[in-house]
Structures are given as structure tokens and as C-alpha cells.
Amino acid sequence: MNKIMMTMLVAGSIGLGFGGLQAEGVVQVDDQMGLSKTSVFDDPSPAAFDYPQTDPQASHALPRAWDGAPPQIPHNIDDFLPINAESNGCNRCHDKPARIGQKKIKGLPTPMPASHYVKAEDGKLSRSGARYFCNQCHTPQAEVSDLVGNTFSE
Description:
Layout: H1 2-22, H2 91-94, E1 117-119, E2 125-127
Antiparallel strand pairs: 1-2
């Protein structure tokens, strides 16, 4: 039994050795590895940009990307950072539960929607503790060109 096993191991090793000598080297060209027609080592760095310095009172609502999309932030938010549970500068202007459902008034900030509030036992609305990180959904906008082409339309 040992002799048969040893013979098979030697024969397998010889077969693998000859097979390895016959294999051709595979050359992978870096500009043919992905969907892009450029090298995978190219670094498409976008041009530097600044967010608009528009004062929040002077900004206007931006169009939404699709129906139901969260509104984009049309002004610079540097003065409101960091946005967290303890410090949220957005609430100074947008926490207006009495204005929910009213027509937009030019020059006044858009109030947060009812989905950002919870109703207390007395019927009053208070901000939801889970809705403090505004720029998770709402993003400031800047005029930049697409790094990658985009043909999305609703």
C-alpha cells in the first residue's frame, strides 16, 4: 500500500512539474483591468472648490434630485459645525414646528418637516432625538463638474 501511494505522489509531482513548465505567463495590462479605459494607477483628482459663501438669509431653495429627496443645503455650513447631538446650529433657524405645512415664505428658513419631530403626550411637537445629524441626509452644494459622467434623470 505504501509503495502504491509513493508511486502516485511521485507521478503527480512529475506531472505538475511538466505542466508548470508548459504554462505561459499571463500579462495583465493595467488599462484593461476594469471598466475604465485608463490605467488603474491614474488618480483622477477633482479640482479644488469652495462651498458658496451665501449668507443663509440670502440663499434660496435648490431643486431636489428626485421626488422625496432630502433638500440640499444652499448655504455654507462652516459656522454650524460640528453638527452633533449636543451642538446643532441648524436648529436655531429650522426648528419651527408651528410653521410645518405652511406655505414657504421668501427670506425665512424652511422648517424641518413633521418627520423630524415626535408628538408629546400634551400634543406638542418636540425634535426627535434621532434626527440631530442633519448633514447625513442634507448636503451643502458647490458648483463642480462631475468627476465621473452621470446620466441620471428621473
